Model the fold of this input.
Amino acid sequence: MKSTILYHRVFLLLLCIVTAGFFAILWPFLGAVFWGVALAVLFAPLHQRLLARMPRKPTLAALATLGICLLIVILPLVLIGASLVREAALIYENLSTGEINVGAYFQQIMSALPGWATRALDGLGLASVIDIQDKLSNVAVQASKVVATQAVGIGQNTLGFLVSFAVMLYLLFFLLRDGAELVRRIRQALPLEPAHKAALASKFTTVVRATIKGNLAVAMAQGALGGLIFWLLDIQGPVLWAVVMAFLSLLPAVGAGLIWGPVALYFFATGDVVKGSILAAYGVLVIGLVDNVLRPVLVGKDTKMPDYIVLISTLGGMALFGLTGFVVGPLIAALFIAVWDLFSQDIKSGSDHTPPAR
Done:
């Protein structure tokens, strides 16, 4: 009996060691692996439809699904990324040469402020306009420099990016083709109750699909609408600001307003009331409406999480995992809630079946 227990413990230790080693090997390609899994979950329904039309050709169905994924997701992202790099480099060059003078813009705003606002700034120790101009100029230059540096870094690290991209596509193909069998084996290996496995698998699939489809739909809609109004109002770098607004729209409640709001205030402060009014009304009634209408329908309804949990988990996920965190954060939060719900149900079920004390 003691020998059996010892063998069992040694085997569990070995299992933990090889599992940790396997994850250590995957760590450099963690992002590629995650997005391969996420895209496989997202495109699984489409793959099932194609597979139903060609039941004896699973490889061809997987290749067709992969081609559609490349066409409607990856190719547009590559084109937008190329435009973003060009506009970021152009804005950085204009800031460096002084063609765009953030300090001058701030001077215009300060000159347009009423007396009480100027006195309030004096009370906050912001009386020196020159110092504030220098600080804002430095911040703007540094921020644009970071964007340009990241863009150059991506270009210099092309080999690593291409390898990760190839790993993602390779993994996505096999997950589409053999994913059902892999999921079955994983569910068999998990030491959980069948009902718990089914509930957690359903929650994982639902949250990944809802988060990616919902957040990306909201991001693309808000980014496109924001870029359109910036282009119509002749604001420099509409594609860049559209991408920034799309990125910020991943954050519920705040989102794209962090970009169009200050620009509208600048127009008001500098006397351009028409542009300021158009941008403010458009931001609230059009861009904001997209977030208020689409996000609850596409994300909150399926994940069954309140907005504040989605916001906190998204911020925390992005702080830990970068851009991937906008999916990982809500996913972990949803699984956390689901596991505790299952645990509480088990406790309640156990207490309901406990015989009364005599």
DSSP finds 13 helices and no strands in the chain. The chain has a mean pLDDT of 76.
